[in-house]
Amino acid sequence: MHYWVQAAREPARTTDLQPAAPAATVPTARTTPSGPGGPGGTDGRRALVESDLRLAACGFLLIDPADVDLSADLMELGFDSVSLVQLTGRIGDTYGVEVEPVVVFDHPTLADLGRLLLTGFADAVDARHRKLTDGTADAAPADGDEQP
Length: 148
Prior knowledge:
Blueprint: H1 42-61, H2 74-77, H3 81-95, H4 103-106, H5 110-120, H6 122-134
Helix pairs in contact: 1-3, 1-5
Pfam families: PP-binding
Keywords: Phosphopantetheine, Phosphoprotein
Region (Disordered): 1-45
């Protein structure tokens, strides 16, 4: 049986992911003229989310990002309640959204969390993708810990 331990984290998180900027200021384009497989398309967005999730998780798991199994249950990967709180905080910091740790009950794998980001909060993913392709943001997700 697993128990949640609420970690001290400011500001308090809400129960859903919420875009940091109003939707009117973040275009909702899903693909660019380069097409779905191009650098700004659906495949590029999915690759960005997967890379961000791998980088966020590897700091907790102390493994290489390429070795992070996106389809494995987070608890089976080695996360506990405290590290899940920190992981959801890191995801929120990376995308400028608020992630309540209980979201992992409905999205127990990194792949599930990635689909949630891509489908429910595409504006935040698109904004990050644009910043990276424009060269106006750091490539690595927000992170307070050293990566292995």
